Amino acid sequence: MRFFLCFLPLFICFSACQKTSPQQQAAYDIIPLPASMTPQPGHFVLEPGTRIVLEKEAESLREVALYFASVIHEISGFELKVKDKAAKKNNIIFQLDEKIAGDEAYHLSLSASQIIIQSRSARGAFYAIQTLRQLYADQQFPAVEIEDAPRFPYRGMHLDVARHFFDVAAVKRYIDQLAFHKLNHFHWHLTDDQGWRIEIKKYPKLTEIGAFRKGTLIGHYNDQPHQFDGKRYGGFYTQEEIKEVVAYAASRFVTIVPEIEMPGHAQAPLAAYPELGCTGEQLEVWQLWGVSENVYCPKEETFAFLEDVLTEVMALFPGKYIHIGGDESPKTQWEQNAFCQELIRREGLKDEHELQSYFIRRIERFVNSQGRRIIGWDEILEGGLAPNATVMSWRGISGGIEAAQSGHDVIMTPTSHCYLDYYQSDHPDEPLAIGGFIPLEKVYGYEPIPAELEGAARAHVLGAQANLWTEYIPTVEKLDYMIFPRLCALAELVWSPADKRDFDHFAQRLSPHLDRLKGMGIHCANHLYDLNAAIQPQAGKVEVKLNIHAKEGSIHYTRDGSEPTPQSPLYEGPLQLDSSAYIRAQAFRADGKPGRAWEQKIVFHKATGKHIQLTHQPHDKYKGGGNGSVLNGVLGSDERYGDAEWLGFDGNDFEAMIDMGQDAALIKAVHFRFFKGEGQWIYLPAEIHILTSSDGKEFKEIAVQEEISGENKVVEVTMPLHELAVRYLKIIAKNHGTIAPGRQGAGNKAWLFVDELRVY
Ligand code: TNX
Question: Does the active-site annotation cover 678?
Answer without folding.
Answer: no
